[in-house]
Write a structure and sequence with these properties.
Belongs to the WD repeat WDR3/UTP12 family. This protein has 16 helices and 57 strands. It is an alpha+beta fold. Among the domains are: 1-16 and 579-706, YVTN repeat-like/Quinoprotein amine dehydrogenase (Methylamine Dehydrogenase, Chain H), CATH 2.130.10; 17-56 and 69-225 and 244-296 and 334-393, Methylamine Dehydrogenase, Chain H, CATH 2.130.10; 737-872. Strand 6 (70-75) and strand 7 form a beta hairpin. Helix 9 runs antiparallel to helix 10, helix 12 (810-823) runs antiparallel to helix 13 (830-843) and helix 12 crosses helix 15 (854-893). The chain is flat.
Length: 943
């Protein structure tokens, strides 16, 4: 009989507040901060310091994998949040309910930039595949509009302009591109940067666009709008200036010379934050036009005074003086007149991301949130003179990687250590119960009774922790080198430590009382020492207390008798030092993991090596047997957890989920769950389920996954000629070919074949004029052939429809075009029919022209589709006009529902008034010149 095993699956992940691979962002209300936590997004109420919600996909398989790491976050004015992932997908989440509404698949590489337009109806995504995809996110069905190609390297940021008619993108190829979204044309390519452009942003009034790069200055560009073009007139604006929307205004010199990581305006646009790659954020005040002109006048006045005082200075500054001599007629405002350094914010650790709160605080100018690279969130209040840290989220996670995890004997407590703190967790819920300051903890164990715990540090000390009060009650100078391993004696009377000072020490628990304290507390005393020839990297004690095994730095394992400390076995075979060991509960087997990536299974009776397994792609960091079995778990620097059968020497499961090296592992006493700690600062729990599996099935799954992973690197795709990308524009299909789109294509082809056979049967039944009733095909579920094909087509997700139709052969596309005439008469299917017709015509245009059989189909389709679409468009236009009229009536009656709309209307009117005021002097001057010309012409005619 084939043996079955029980499957382990990912159950919980905790300990991560903010990961480094993505940006942070406030939600629309400003109450919650969206923070990336590896493959999840935490919705933090920073004021309370609690995670209100987690946006995470439910993993149903053991192969979640590190490919779903969050790489970009964008929020809009509604409850929608867009999250980009490392596999190239974008998911739209509802922040209120915490559910994923749509999955958009369009990039071949990680999503590196996300931005909503102002109404929140369009979403632009840029990826490491150098492409930009524009998505229509209105309604329940999100669709990809088109793909913009042109950048030669990773897209780093995108921003909408000019009422969302234009898009500006930046890239690591040192260029910015300005795209016209209506014509899908690259209007302008902005050069001048000498290094990669990392971030761009535009203020709310769209006056200035700011770019941050590795250059020593931050560049400011002015934005020319279409209305300004109309005012200038066609005579003054040449062919080049017409397309020159972005014009360099100047540069500002930040104090920090590191590369600029992020530039962001606040919502009102009066503050600009420049975050460097180091520990500094510089806050600039953005002055309005009146203040900037006053500052420019003062600057000119000061320079005139200097000119009068010193002739030498005037000679040295001759160009400047002559320049500002012209300013007396037309004052020139420079960058320094508009952008004024307000505050410099410094942090203790490097800053990963910044985000302004959309809500202006009652006191202060703005609220700025920071994510640091030590798993920390901070919120600062920006005031006129100072910046104050108001909140921070730090308790739920370690500041550095997790070096060890230890479970209590009853599996109710979990202790983890890092470079400066010890944390006690509830492994069931993932909540942090205690945080204790400590040294660099490398190993630990719980004292029997679980009231106290021991931690061995890198400094060679033993720290005794009171778990209940969360305090360190004593620090013992145990070793002259780092304490690498702690092994508890099976009888609970003491423990053994192995250290880098070549000593293995035996300890016993004692109760001591200090003179100034009334109660006794736990302490330890050294009862024996075993000298080694090299560093002791790991210590393991057999459950029957008969043997103690010590792994040394010279790649050997020494096995001693516990009572006499005489050597019993010397185990050789590993090519690199052994980093971990464990002995099975029946004392029969010992497993060792090494930096040579191998696991070796030893028999403790004779010291023979039963099997050497090439287990991991990197060093094996921890290995543990499940109690009362010969099953074991191993973890390594290759980021995976592996489940083994030590009797059959077979790999049972591979569990993926961590995003960095795994340092430690703990198995529960019942074997119902395991806990792992990693360099990515996360602690993960994996639970045993009731689902059985078989070794052969898992082998087949692994082979299939290897085959699928190799499909993208096939001979055709690897050596195919790559098309040259023009400099001006290339518009591509928004979606991406996936297994889902290919499956949908097969479904449509099958439906077309079944419908064709059914139509032939119906024609034969009519020709025979049989008296019996026609028996329809049971597969068609009682639907007519056109309805059955329409049902298959409607089941395709809207975002995948284009890629699904692209994979259709011409013969099947021709069959599908025949059905469009019948479907066009249905009002609810007009949009679907138009999309299908457009894609098929664009894809098969040349073949349709050259195929005589297609002409009657296209003629009949044009006769039906044009009037139907026109009628549908008129209905939509009438409804939109009616809704706008109702909105105006309601806004005139009540101020409450449309306060924002009224405010925006007032802003537009004031902006138009300013432009009209600026236009009036120019108009008067033109009229004056016109009168002069006409008077001159009259005088000439009089002569």
């Amino acid at each position: 009989m084939v043996k079955s095993y029980l499957r382990y699956e990912p159950a919980a992940s905790f300990g991560v507040v903010a990961s480094n691979d993505s940006n942070i962002s406030y939600d629309s209300s400003g109450k919650h901060l969206l923070s990336p936590a590896l493959e999840k997004v935490g919705v933090w109420n920073v004021r309370q310091g609690v995670c209100a919600k987690t946006l995470a996909l439910l993993s149903t398989s053991s192969r979640g994998g590190p490919s779903l790491a969050v790489t970009s976050i964008a929020s809009t004015t509604t409850s929608q949040v867009a999250v980009g992932y490392a596999d190239g997908s974008v998911r739209i989440w509802d922040c209120n309910t915490g559910t994923c509404e749509t999955t958009l698949i369009g990039h071949k590489g990680a999503v590196s930039a996300l931005r909503y337009d102002n109404p929140g109806s369009n979403l632009a995504s840029g990826g490491k595949d150098n492409d930009i995809v524009l998505w229509d996110v209105v309604g329940d069905e999100t669709t990809g509009r088109f793909r913009l190609l042109g950048h030669r390297d990773q897209v780093t940021d995108v921003v909408f302009l000019d009422n969302d008619k234009k898009l500006v993108s930046s890239s690591k190829d040192k260029f910015m591109r300005l795209w016209d979204l209506e014509t899908k044309y690259c209007m302008q390519i902005i050069s001048g940067h000498h290094s990669e452009i990392w971030s761009i942003d535009v203020d709310s009034e769209e006056r200035y666009l700011v770019t941050g790069s590795a250059d020593p200055e931050v560049r400011i560009y002015t934005i020319k709008h279409e209305s300004a073009d109309e005012l200038q007139g066609s005579e003054n604006s040449g062919a080049e200036s017409k397309w020159e929307v972005l014009k360099l205004f100047g540069e500002i010199q930040p104090q920090n010379k590191d590369r600029v990581g992020t530039v962001r305006f606040n919502k009102s646009g009066d503050l600009l934050a420049c975050q460097a790659a180091g520990k500094m954020v510089e806050i600039f005040r953005v002055l309005d036009e009146a203040e900037a002109k006053r500052k420019a006048k003062r600057r000119v006045h000061r320079k005139k005074e200097k000119k009068g005082k010193s002739a030498t200075e005037s000679a040295e500054n001759g160009e400047t003086v002559s320049l500002h001599g012209e300013e007396s007629a037309a004052l020139v405002v420079t960058v320094t007149d508009v952008f004024k350094l307000l505050q410099t914010l410094r942090t203790s650790k490097k800053i990963c991301s910044i985000s302004f709160s959309p809500v202006k605080p009652k006191s202060g100018l703005a609220t700025l949130a920071l994510s640091l690279n030590n798993n920390l969130l901070e919120v600062h209040s920006i005031e006129t003179e100072t910046t104050t840290k108001t909140y921070s989220v730090e308790l739920p996670g370690h500041r550095s990687d997790v070096r060890s995890v230890i479970l209590s004997s009853d599996n109710t407590l979990l202790m983890s250590t890092s470079h400066n703190a010890i944390k006690i967790w509830n492994p069931s819920t993932g909540s942090c119960l205690r945080t204790i300051d400590s040294g660099y903890g490398l190993c630990g164990s719980f004292v029997p009774g679980n009231r106290f715990a021991l931690v061995g540090t890198k400094e060679g000390k033993l720290e005794i922790i009171d778990v209940g009060s969360g305090t360190c009650i004593e620090v013992v100078e145990a070793h002259g080198g780092s304490v690498r391993s702690i092994a508890t004696l099976p009888d609970g009377s003491g423990f053994v430590t192995g250290s880098a000072d070549h000593d293995v020490k035996f300890w016993e628990y004692v109760l001591t009382q200090k003179p100034d304290q009334g109660s006794k507390h736990l302490s330890v005393i050294n009862v024996d020492t075993l000298k080694m020839n090299d560093d002791a990297l790991w210590v393991a004690i057999s459950p029957d207390s008969k043997y103690i095994a010590v792994a040394l730095l010279d790649c050997t394992i020494k096995v001693y008798f516990m009572d006499s400390h005489k050597i019993f076995l010397s185990l050789y075979g590993h090519k690199l030092p052994v980093l971990c060991m464990d002995i099975s509960s029946d004392n029969a087997l010992m497993v060792s993991g090494s930096a040579d990536k191998n696991l070796k299974i030893w028999g403790l009776d004779f010291g023979d090596c039963h099997k050497s397994i090439f287990a991991h792609a990197d060093s094996v960091m921890a290995v543990n047997f499940v109690d009362n079995t010969h099953y074991m778990f191993s973890v390594g620097k290759d980021r995976v957890v592996k489940y083994w059968d030590a009797d059959k020497f077979e790999l049972l499961l591979t569990l993926e989920g961590h995003h960095a090296e795994i340092w430690c592992l703990a198995v529960s006493s019942r074997g119902d769950f395991i806990v792992t700690g990693s360099h990515d600062r996360s602690i993960r729990r994996w639970d045993r389920t009731e689902e059985p599996f078989f070794i052969e099935e898992e082998k087949e799954k692994r082979l299939d996954e290897m085959f699928e992973a190799d499909v993208d690197n096939s001979f055709e795709s690897r050596y195919a000629l790559k098309a040259e990308v023009p400099e001006d524009r290339v518009v591509g299909v928004a979606g991406k070919k996936t297994k889902e789109t290919l499956t949908a294509t097969d479904t449509i082809i099958d439906a077309l074949d079944i419908a064709e056979v059914e139509l032939q049967r119906m024609d034969e039944h009519k020709a025979e004029k049989a008296g019996g009733k026609f028996q329809p095909n049971i597969i068609m579920l009682g639907l007519s052939p056109p309805d059955y094909v329409l049902r298959s087509l409607s089941n395709v997700p809207t975002n995948d429809l284009e890629q699904t139709l692209l994979a259709l052969p011409f013969s099947d596309a021709l069959k599908l075009l025949v059905y469009l005439k019948d479907w066009a008469s249905r009002p609810d299917k007009v949009e679907l029919v138009s999309r299908v017709n457009t894609v098929l015509l664009q894809t098969h245009h040349n073949q349709l022209i050259s195929t005589p059989a297609a002409r009657p189909i296209m003629t009949s389709l044009s006769d039906v589709l044009y009037p139907t679409v026109k009628q549908f468009k008129e209905v939509l236009g009438f409804n939109l006009a009616a809704l706008d009229h109702i909105k105006q009536i309601m806004s005139s009656r009540s101020d409450a529902p449309f306060r924002d709309a009224k405010k925006k209307l007032l802003e537009i009117r004031s902006h138009q008034t300013k432009r009209l005021a600026a236009r009036t002097p120019a108009k008067e001057e033109r009229q004056k010149k016109k009168k002069q010309k006409s008077s001159g012409a009259g005088a000439w005619s009089g002569q």
